[in-house]
Design brief:
Elements lengths: L4 E4 L2 E3 L8 E6 L2 E3 L9 E6 L2 E2 L5 E2 L2 E6 L2 E2 L7 E2 L2 E10 L5 E2 L2 E10 L10 E11 L8 E11 L8 E6 L2 E3 L8 E6 L2 E3 L8 E6 L2 E3 L8 E10 L10 E14 L3 E6 L1 E6 L10 E5 L1
Parallel strand pairs: 1-3, 2-4, 3-5, 4-6, 5-8, 6-9, 7-10, 8-11, 9-11, 10-12, 11-13, 13-14, 14-15, 15-16, 15-17, 16-18, 17-19, 18-20, 19-21, 20-22, 22-23, 23-24, 23-25, 24-26
Length: 281
């Protein structure tokens, strides 16, 4: 790696303050009052640095950010960027990542995660807190360990995502998604997983009104769904559930095993009821 030129305790202002910067290190600096300060940068290291204005890292490559924060006005902060890592960062601005790849996030708190991580790929996340709607829309190849998310419409259109040890409070999570696996997680929100393909849930607790419907190839093992109602409508399903299910309605085909189903709705005028095996106990 090339020798880094270090800049410490500087306040950098004006549009494109460090435009096309290369192989530089910023320590305890402030980028303020000027758009696109590090646009087209490469080989950049930021330590305990504050980004206070819009579009700080666009079209950048090989970026490492440790500590510091992205202020509320650092909107649309990281777009069209490759190979970037954030660790121990407070991220306050919305629309944080867009069309970027090679992203590593660890101990990052997204205070306003609205429209964050859109159309990104090859994303690794560990110990992340996020609050905001439309998180991770149309992302691909995500590996997530420890996501605490409070926001609706998450992972819409996402593909090839593995989530574990997480807590998702999210209406309409996983809509239109493909090849999603969630394990050892708590997921709560209405209309979970509609129009998904290949959704796998292992050792999860699910709470959902009309959840897990319209899914092609839903696979569940060691899950609890006690507070889930009108589940599995028009889904192809292979589910083994621990405990009760509040209600099941018109699965398309497959197998559902549970200790108890409090309400079972099978309407022969809607589905071929012989195509689904129901096992109680």
């Amino acid at each position: 790696m090339a020798q880094l030129l270090t800049l410490s305790d500087a306040r950098l202002t004006g549009e494109r303050a460090e435009f096309f910067a290369s192989n530089k290190k910023y320590v305890s600096c402030i980028f303020d009052d000027g758009e696109s300060p590090l646009k087209h940068s490469s080989g950049i290291v930021c330590e305990d640095t504050v980004f206070g204005w819009k579009y700080p890292l666009w079209y950048s490559t090989a970026i490492t950010v440790t500590g510091g924060r992205f202020e509320e006005m650092a909107r649309a902060g990281i777009w069209y960027t490759k190979d970037i890592s954030l660790k121990n960062v407070l991220y306050i601005a919305p629309k944080g990542f867009r069309r970027s790849s090679g992203i590593t996030l660890e101990n990052v708190s997204f205070e306003n995660a609205q429209e964050t991580l859109w159309q990104c790929e090859n994303v690794k996340m560990k110990n992340i807190k996020a609050k905001g709607d439309y998180f991770a829309m149309n992302c691909e190849k995500m590996d997530i360990d420890g996501l605490d998310l409070d926001g609706n419409y998450s992972f819409d259109g996402a593909k090839n995502v593995h989530i574990k040890n997480s807590r998702l409070l999210s209406k309409d999570a996983f809509w239109n998604s493909e090849n999603i696996t969630a394990e050892n997680s708590f997921i709560s929100g209405e209309y979970l997983g509609w129009n998904a393909k290949n959704l796998t849930l292992i050792n999860c607790t699910i709470e959902s009104l009309q959840g897990l419907c319209y899914i092609e190839n839903l696979f569940m093992r060691e899950c609890k769904t006690g507070a889930t109602t009108l589940a599995f409508e028009y889904s192809t399903v292979d589910a083994e559930i621990i405990g009760d299910v509040e209600s099941v309605k018109n699965p398309l085909c497959g197998r559902i095993k549970a200790d108890k189903i409090n309400e079972l709705i099978l309407e022969p005028e809607r589905v071929d009821v012989d195509k689904t095996q129901i096992i109680i106990g």
